[in-house]
Amino acid sequence: VPFQAIPREQSFFGLFERAAANVAAGARELAALSSNLADGEAASGRLRDIEHEGDELTHRIMATLNTTFVTPFDREDIYRLATVLDDILDAGEAVADLLVLHRIEEPLPELRQQAEVLVRATEVISKAVSRLRSLTGLNGYLIEINRLENEGDRIYRKTIARLYSGEFKAMEVLKWKDVLDQMETAIDGCEDIANVIESITLKHA
Amino acid sequence: VPFQAIPREQSFFGLFERAAANVAAGARELAALSSNLADGEAASGRLRDIEHEGDELTHRIMATLNTTFVTPFDREDIYRLATVLDDILDAGEAVADLLVLHRIEEPLPELRQQAEVLVRATEVISKAVSRLRSLTGLNGYLIEINRLENEGDRIYRKTIARLYSGEFKAMEVLKWKDVLDQMETAIDGCEDIANVIESITLKHA
Amino acid sequence: VPFQAIPREQSFFGLFERAAANVAAGARELAALSSNLADGEAASGRLRDIEHEGDELTHRIMATLNTTFVTPFDREDIYRLATVLDDILDAGEAVADLLVLHRIEEPLPELRQQAEVLVRATEVISKAVSRLRSLTGLNGYLIEINRLENEGDRIYRKTIARLYSGEFKAMEVLKWKDVLDQMETAIDGCEDIANVIESITLKHA
Hints:
- The structure is a homotrimer.
- By secondary structure, chain A is mostly helical.
- Chain A has six helices and no strands.
- Chain A is globular, with a radius of gyration of 18 Å.
- Chains in contact: A-B, A-C, B-C.
């Protein structure tokens, strides 16, 4: 065939949709783990598989970016979107790893609350990303992601306050701080994604 | 009126001047708080207002950037300048938050010393930013910002050494490390701003 | 002479080769220090000299970037390569500083293992950077850097698990965590460099 039926640049949308769905799958895995640490090693392995799938998708997005002259959005926005999706998965994998490395047996209920926020935020991201083709109907999703990030922030701060209140020993504080920070980093990444998407919509307004 | 009397791009200068003045106001609030923690919750609220004002200004700078074809500086420099001004305020707000969250009642004198360095550095930044229109007389300001960042670094390192010397309990070390790190991040941001401004001057030399 | 015999852009290659060799020298200094902490202050000083040399080279790369219209690679790749080389040295200097500040007298053997990985990775980086002119024979180097980063990651995780296992007191954990994190940051930077170089090769494929 002399011509590509689908212009190459269109592949960005499909790759981003798969990457966003993969991030949401990682968040669900993390929520399951946060409710039941007995399954730590196995869940950690499944998250690692999801993270490898994410790496593969990031790699394909970057390779497409590097070989495409006309992109549907600014190159830097494509780069940032791929990078931040990857960052969320990295932080999620770090949560699972730290739970295992620190041999944490009893999860803080607040970790599960954070994970539930992450699940909801990544599901909204997935919906938002599927609207990048049309760039319509995005506003409600962006507001919802910001609302969820604020909720995550509130949970994180409340938990840190409890952690340092004297109720826990220093070694426990050290272990949990690592875990909670990574979960907060994952949730923060959702807001970064909302910011990139907002910036894309502004440029195409 | 058929034409804009003031070309749109000129608005960047005014927005950056307001953003820099806002950052300096935040630093002064932080210095007051570092001298008197009794006022923690109220000062934390005032800093949050300043941070919201900063977010609003950042948002307007980014919106202007996304809708302006000819910018007075490279787009990436405008983006970085806005981002780093925002980062300084975020770190400053985190300092105030952590003092409250960790229920710290007695401030380390070193925190006040750091805050004073931040006040002076942000005042110099404010002066430097007001010279972005003319790009003259900047060199002295940049040198002064770097000198202050080095002074902040010296204070930070001296304080960390004392913190880990055995004089403090592990829980105290954990709490203070968080606070001092955020203050050091705010001061480091001042050097980042000097670097962006230097890069702008080099391109227009 | 009316014309430059060597086009200006060629100077990037020489500057990057010197910067990469300087980073490798820093890694060797760090490995020596990790084996023998008695020499802490002096080694810390030598690393600081190497770091200043690195700052000078970064500065020259950035100045050349800001005044060159046609660059051998994308401007952003040159910027990132210079930035990440600088980050590795910064993290290395932080390791040496923290060993002194925390008055650590007995090194963990795992720190030396990390340092050895960093030495090998920075030597491979140096070889890879010297091939940026031709962009040939890079693949094997990139694979080797990634393999070493994975090895560093494995050592880091094993060490963190031991550190939090109950064998160490909270204050020791606090001190060592800082040091190990900075060393891990330095090793992670090597992977970032491999990624930038890969991105350059893809664009010129």
